[in-house]
Design goal:
alpha+beta; Helix Hairpins; BirA Bifunctional Protein, domain 2; 2 domains; 8-stranded mixed beta sheet; 17 strands
Length: about 425
């Protein structure tokens, strides 16, 4: 959501920012709606003043014994009341139209974000580690998992259809182990507060983090009106909705391990095999709530936390600065971490860390009061995967595979796997 006053003050800059995302100019339309709204507010206020003044005349007319004048003024007050109600209804309708219009416009990217049409225009920020190579032909994770008898897509399809998986035995434990490994690092070393949030949210929560209204088709909805969360970003960010925090309370840093649910409506034909793109998947999410001057610094900190997981697992990765055409709807800047997958001979996304400025905070009504000041300001929000658990498992299977089809367990993960060093059919 945007500050209309800021658009009014510099419409050219607003349209220039949208142009970087390939969006047509919107400022003129917004300001025309805003002008109509302000004129309507002025008219409603004028009618309210006339009604108040007329109401005072009723008593005076009755006190003077002028019943005719009293009847006339009563009728005038009734007419003004009706006009006032009509004006207030018109105002509500117009306010909603403006809100709906603004809700469909993506956030303005930071000035130094690379301008581009899609992922082909993303820019390498930095890389870490050397991609693994083998003296045998590397397999993809789904072949490895199925050969072990611990990853079953067929039985999942019988229950739920495509894009689901059943994990068994050591791979089932690995999902739990990875979540605990990530959460321990986030909470014990980087100060994130662990949260167990609801997995079902109302319209307001999904709207606050911009999943609604634009991306409704990407979500799953229950018959009684709840949305299944596509990521824990939704409930974690909404922890501060409709609140005013003291500056001393910030930053707030939250983390959660949850299942996530996505319809993948826009991903037909992509990654149809394996665990890269499922309807249900596990993820450890990070959310930060900070003062405006700290958000860019916080983004780099969040990125480093996500990177630390891969460093300890000793898996090569690269960090990409997303172009304006590849960033998410609410983001001002996004860094994607892409992990090396030997089976695919490619880097694939495993984490996305974004700063949203006050874009989500305006929707949620999330503010803070600067120290020593009475006036409040909107907070800035950030979110990032720390990491996608299923994709981390994919990365481990492909990077730690051995010639006989077994999987070496990363040293850092072994304590969480009961000391298990190798996953094989016999283990």
């Amino acid at each position: 959501m945007f500050d209309i006053k800021a658009i009014r003050d510099n419409p050219g800059a607003f349209d220039a920012g949208l142009a970087k995302r390939g969006v047509a100019p919107q400022a003129a339309t917004i300001l025309a709606m805003d002008e109509k709204r302000r004129a309507l507010i002025a008219r409603v206020q004028e009618v309210q003043t006339r009604r108040n003044n007329a109401s005072k005349l009723i008593g005076k007319a009755k006190a003077s014994g002028d019943e005719g004048e009293a009847v006339r003024v009563i009728a005038e007050v009734a007419s003004l009341k009706e006009e006032l109600q009509q004006g207030e209804e018109e105002e509500r309708v117009l306010e909603q139209e403006i809100t709906d219009f603004l809700s469909a416009i993506p956030n303005i990217p930071h000035d130094d974000v690379p301008v581009g049409a899609d992922e082909a225009d993303n820019v390498l920020h930095h890389s870490h580690g050397e991609p693994r190579t083998f003296n045998f032909e590397a397999k993809e994770h789904f072949d490895l998992g199925e050969d072990l008898g611990m990853m079953d897509f067929e039985i999942a399809a019988k229950m739920s259809g495509s894009r689901f998986v059943v994990l068994k035995k050591h791979l089932a434990r690995m999902e739990r182990a990875l979540a605990n490994f990530m959460l321990d690092i986030h909470t014990n070393e980087f100060g994130y507060e662990e949260i167990v949030p609801p997995l079902l949210v109302r319209d307001e929560a999904a709207y606050g983090t911009t999943q609604l209204p634009k991306f409704a088709e990407d979500l799953f909805k229950t018959d009684n009106g709840y949305w299944l969360i596509p990521t824990a970003e939704v409930p974690l960010t909404n922890l501060v909705r409709e609140s005013i925090m003291d500056e001393a309370e910030l930053p707030k840093r939250f983390t959660a391990f949850t299942p996530c649910f996505r319809s993948e409506a826009g991903s037909a034909g992509r990654d149809t095999r394996g665990m890269i793109r499922l309807h249900q998947f596990a993820k450890v999410e990070m959310v930060s709530v900070v003062t405006p001057g700290k958000s860019d610094e916080e983004l780099l900190r969040m990125l480093s936390v996500a990177e630390e997981i891969l460093k300890r697992l000793d898996i090569a990765y690269q960090v990409m600065t997303l172009s304006t055409g590849d960033m998410g709807f609410a983001a001002q800047r996004t860094y994607d971490i892409e992990v090396w997958l030997p089976g695919q001979n490619a880097f694939r996304e495993i984490s996305s860390c974004s700063v949203c400025g006050d874009f989500q905070a305006r929707r949620m009504g999330a503010r803070y009061r600067p120290t020593g000041e009475k006036k409040t300001q909107y907070v800035h929000t950030l979110n990032g995967s720390g990491l996608a658990v299923g994709r981390t498992m994919v990365a481990i299977l492909e990077n730690y595979q051995q010639a006989d089809g077994s999987i070496a367990v990363p040293v850092a993960l072994q304590p969480y796997m009961g000391g298990l060093e190798t996953i094989s059919k016999e283990s």
